[in-house]
Amino acid sequence: GGHNLSLLGPPGAGKTMLAERLSTILPRLDAAAALEVTSIHSVAGALIPGTELVFEPPFCAPHHTASKAAIVGGGSGLIRPGAASLAHRGVLFLDEAPEFGRDVLDALRQPLEAGEVVIARQAMTARFPARFTLVLAANPCPCARAATPGGAACECSPATRRRYLGRLSGPLLDRVDVKITLEPVNRREMLYDRKYAETSAVVARRVAAARDRAARRLAGTPWRLNAEIPGAELRRAFPPEQGALKSLDRAMELGQVSARGADKIVRVAWSVADLAGKPRPGAGEIEIGRAHV
Known about the structure:
Elements: E1 5-8, H1 15-25, H2 31-43, E2 59-60, H3 68-72, H4 83-86, E3 91-94, H5 102-106, H6 109-114, E4 116-120, E5 125-129, E6 133-138, H7 158-165, H8 170-173, E7 178-181, H9 187-193, H10 200-217, H11 231-237, H12 246-253, H13 259-276, H14 283-292
Parallel strand pairs: 1-6, 1-7, 2-3, 3-6
Antiparallel strand pairs: 4-5
Helix pairs in contact: 10-13, 13-14
């Protein structure tokens, strides 16, 4: 569905591994998107020699020491696109997200909202496409110690944890649809999981089918993915099943969910319904959305 994602968990829980697999389950780019991506990589000087068109969704993972110009683009002379544009139509992964500079993270708010980066200079203004899926990964605290049996316990105070995660501003997190907390995985779980593990190719087929359903539903609109639908259009043009929003409406009345939060829940519910092959999300899909938003 193109939803931005936040992964919170101790080291070894699989945050980086999951993020790196996302681009392998996304559908190949169509001709128009491939031309956009290829053009951006060519301007940035990042195009592999001999490449005609880039059809694979890009995956960009800048280091947490990257500057604002490296992330959103810029330069003292020739303006070049940054990581946000190099991840256009793909995935921008920020590992150890709280370690990035506050100004760097806040600079992502514009491309997340508008799908493009606008860089103004005295003599010129450059616009670069930047419609990507943002994935933030973070440890629960600065010491990054997993509270596992036999391991060193975290000694960070609650105030230290709040300050650390507080580096991710509220306006940035408001643009993240799905938030998942990961727990440490033990050896028994890893061995047991092998019986049910699926390859990226298997998952990619389900994703492609879900994208096709969304494309048919959004045909004739300016949007391509569920995450792009404005909140004002969700309930008017794309309502869930009748009665599916009862629990969500009650939560809004009690102040447990904001209007923006409700929009995110409905967007995620549509993606869950698309994956399940359902024509519209029901109460079950709404509850799944509430559990992860």
